[in-house]
Design brief:
The chain is an all-alpha fold and 195 residues long. It has helices spanning 32-51, 71-91, 123-141, 146-150, 162-187; strands at 153-154, 159-160. Helix content is 47%, strand content 2%.
Amino acid sequence: MSLTRPRRPAEYGTDVTSDRALLILEPVADAPEVGRWLSALDDGRRDTIRELEDVTDQMLELAPHGAPNRIGTLLYHVALIELDWLLVDILGPGSGVAWPTDLAPLEDRDADGVLTVVEGETLGQHLARLERVRALLHEHLRSMAVEEFHAPRPRERYDVSPAWVLHHLLQHEAEHRAHIAWVRDAILGRFDRPS
């Protein structure tokens, strides 16, 4: 038995001599291993953006019944966490890279430990933030040697390597991408109603 898989969108690349999709991770950094991890992150980001195709600015702040978070809040959280892992854990406090308060001015969680509600932003603003954070990540990792990529950095509560951070960011965004899709579908009434 074979599963039928949907065709992958054109942005995955196609062989110019056929309609055959090319599903590979092209290195986008000096060290091929680092470049493939960055390529995997970018592939995941394309999936996140695809889930936002039917989302309007008005939908960003809606909280359908049963949804603990709104789409705008989740998009801010994804960007903020990526920025935090880059600046605090990969680069570290001695890097001299200042926190970009214009990019991420809000704390991640409120006093009750709930994601900070983000309001008053457009989808375009959220996408621009995600793009700027990803550009910073690429800027700091693109020229990183593979040995440095795997070297643990001692932090206050743990030791962590950039490789593990990218692994975590892939999972983190995938989990929230599914959450975003659920909220979107709930808003759009795409769930089957029980009879």
